[in-house]
Write a structure and sequence with these properties.
By secondary structure, the protein is an alpha+beta fold. The chain is built from 14 helices and eight strands.
């Protein structure tokens, strides 16, 4: 859909048309003037000045109408790039599950005056570095700007999502178990990969833990474990100079051959191939900077 992992535009019609046709990227749409009514998953929503709309591929965007004075800024991010950036932002955040669910249910965020100014500065920096032809590092720099924007969004969510005791009480046992599982999983950073180990720590059976994960997240416990483990492996390959053998030891794999088999299965290539192909990563940024 896009020539780069991250790109910007002020042509909302074109970006929404591409999103609906290909649905392989996410859009961040900041309304700078006017208003728009849009269908999201079949429900009408009103977007007004200084509202931010987050369109993930799981959203279905339907009919929309704009006021004549509608102006907006759009940032489009390929899914693999956004997944990498999100992981960097939320891997230490114990409330990331609640925040992600809030965003899925409330894709429109109204920005206060402080975040309006921050958003405009970030967008302007995106413009400058999209026009920059001095080196191949512009994509890396735009990733950093996007990471800063996501941190600001997480701060907004921290301030605006209030979990009352009544809401806690209404949560089902499986949802509470899943939340505790996620916290435990994050604390291991992918170094534990057996469902039975997590089940034992949570005092439930492996089968019940997987049933709870399927109910809450739509995927079994092993799939959730593998997702976090793979993200941590990718981070280590892309953002550190550790050897593959050192990463194997750090991630608590029983042998190098098992680690290589795991990376081929989940990355579609060897660890060495993945590291070599990640030319637009922070690891690549550091190597270029040091030379």
């Amino acid at each position: 859909m896009l020539n780069e992992d991250i790109s910007i535009s002020e042509n909302l019609d074109e970006m929404l048309a591409r999103f609906s046709q290909h649905n392989e990227c996410s859009l961040l749409i900041l309304c700078k003037n006017g208003r728009m009514q849009i269908e999201i998953n079949g429900q009408p929503h009103l977007i007004e000045t200084n509202d931010l709309l987050l369109c993930r591929p799981n959203l279905i965007i339907g009919n929309y109408m704009q006021s004549p004075d509608m102006q907006c800024h759009v940032i489009a991010i390929r899914e693999h790039a956004l997944d990498d950036i999100l992981y960097m932002c939320v891997r230490e955040d114990n409330k990331w599950w609640e925040k992600s669910q809030y965003i899925l249910q409330h894709p429109i965020v109204h920005l206060d005056e402080w975040r309006q100014e921050i958003g405009l500065h970030i967008y302007r920096l995106f413009q400058l570095y999209e026009e920059d032809t001095r080196s191949g590092l512009s994509e890396n720099i735009r990733r950093i700007f996007l990471q800063a924007a996501i941190y600001e969004l997480l701060c907004w969510l921290e301030e605006n999502i209030v979990q009352t005791p009544e809401a806690e009480h209404k949560q089902g046992r499986q949802e509470i178990l899943f939340r505790d599982f996620i916290k435990l999983l994050q604390s291991t950073k992918g170094r534990q990969r057996e469902v039975r180990w997590f089940a034992a720590q949570l005092a439930v059976s492996p089968k019940y833990l997987s049933v709870a994960c399927n109910t809450v997240a739509g995927k079994p416990a092993q799939a959730v474990i593998n997702e976090l483990c793979v993200q941590e492996i990718k981070r280590l390959l892309r953002q550190t100079d550790r050897s593959v053998k050192e990463i194997c030891v750090q991630m608590n794999f029983p042998s190098l051959s098992f680690f290589c088999k795991y990376t081929r299965q989940h990355l579609g290539m060897t660890a060495h191939q993945y590291r070599s192909s990640a030319s637009s990563t922070m690891c690549g940024f550091r190597q270029n900077y040091c030379t």
